[in-house]
Amino acid sequence: MPDPITPVLTKRWLSPNSWRLETYERLEGYTAARKALAGTPEQLVQVVKDSGLRGRGGAGFPAGVKWSFMPPNFDKPHYLVINADEGEPGTCKDIPLMMADPHSLIEGCIIASYAMRSNHCFIYVRGEALHCIRRLNAAAREAYQAGYLGKNIFGTGYDLELTVHAGAGAYICGEETALLDSLEGRRGQPRLKPPFPAAAGLYAAPTTVNNVETIASAPFIVNAGSAWFREMGREKSPGPKIYSISGHVEKPGQYECPLGTTLRELLELAGGMKDGIPLKFWTPGGSSTPMFTAEHLDTPLDFEGAAEAGSMLGTTAVQVFNETVSVPWAVMKWTQFYEHESCGKCTPCREGTYWLAQILERMVEGHGTAEDIDTLLDVCDNILGRSFCALGDGAVSPIQSGIKYFREEFLALCEKNKAAQPELVGAQA
């Protein structure tokens, strides 16, 4: 079992009416915002830098460093945008957080906005999450009525407007610049960088885009200090993390653990493999991260540990598959998702995901050939690092890792096809 920690991000989740302001205030709610606004933006940025908090949306970029990129001048408005467009298969941590404890995100928005001299914050929520959107809007109304949002917060002279914006359900809008285009009312497609959002983001003004879990961590860091935050996790990846465990486990759900927790420990928390059927493969951070096998049970699930083992931590969406699952079938289903969600802006992703899906569908139906495996890898090589954004890179990850660890399953499909067509065998002979 991992070392037990006192719940941090999830500590209010099981409280009655945890989403209400009354409950939040009773459990230290908005005390961190008062403390933050009594200091200077520079002090806040330094505290977050010292804590080692890294972006929880997948990239793992140091949050304090990202905040420091915002220019100190006021010739243009500054914006904070919260990326709550949670749409990757297996990723399901931000919506439960916003459902159970929306005020922790709103308080984090106040702290982060003040640190970056922003007077307007946007929370961009995935459009299908209707209940979540309603709950966030209700929490925002409570915060406005209590004086935590709006004009002259806590009598400090600081003003902050908060807008909850519902997207239209496009996975590509999880990419920060596509999200900004969507927020401006345009079709969600990635922008060319540079300029980066910190220089020209929303409405061409300085903008910082952060994940929900990243911002919700800020109040705890302000209240307890950066040294306390570093007591959890590992040296280069400190703090607690919400791990989303789904698939063939007895108790799927959200598990808060220190960064660096292993799948072996997470499986123990989740009651083990469902029906006792052994583990076959799993993803450490959603479908866009290269898959792992049972050999990686003791890989530390932090940014460095996952990378050293050949994958990425991503959003810690741990999808667990037992021995009953066909790897080519699972890879095909993920690839169909990426084909559907490609925005079509760049040729490698638009055309590549289409052909990858076509080949995999043919193989799974029993009509593949051994040459198809080489074709799949060749198409992946022409997408990886050549697409406009990371969607293309994510689309090839399950294919490349699936063939790397389970090539024999792909070959077996080809042999099945060959056996079904004896005339081809005779012709080749």
Can you offer a commentary on this structure?
The protein is globular and about 80 Å long. The longest helix has 31 residues, at 390-420. It has 429 residues and is α/β, with parallel strands linked by helices. The protein folds into three domains: 21-230, Rossmann fold (3-Layer(aba) Sandwich), CATH 3.40.50.11540; 240-322, Roll (Ubiquitin-like (UB roll)), CATH 3.10.20; 327-423, Up-down Bundle (de novo design (two linked rop proteins)). α2 runs parallel beside α6 and α5 (94-100) packs across α6. It has helices spanning 21-26, 31-37, 41-51, 63-68, 94-100, 102-115, 130-146, 176-183, 197-200, 212-224, 226-230, 263-269, 303-308, 327-341, 347-364, 370-383, 390-420, 422-428, and strands spanning 79-84, 120-125, 150-153, 158-166, 207-211, 240-247, 253-258, 279-283, 292-293, 317-322. Residues 328-373 form the NADH-ubiquinone oxidoreductase 51kDa subunit iron-sulphur binding domain. Keywords: 4Fe-4S, Flavoprotein, FMN, Iron, Iron-sulfur, Metal-binding, NAD, Quinone, Translocase.
Biggest beta-sheet profile:
5 strands, mixed
Averaged pLDDT, please?
Answer: 93
The CATH class of the largest domain is identified as: Alpha Beta
CATH level-4 homologous superfamily of the largest domain: NADH-ubiquinone oxidoreductase 51kDa subunit
How many discrete domains? Answer: 3
Architecture of the largest domain, according to CATH?
A: 3-Layer(aba) Sandwich
Considering the chains and any ligands shown, give keywords for the structure.
429 residues; alpha/beta; Rossmann fold; Ubiquitin-like (UB roll); de novo design (two linked rop proteins); five-stranded mixed beta sheet; disordered C terminus; NADH dehydrogenase activity; NAD; FMN
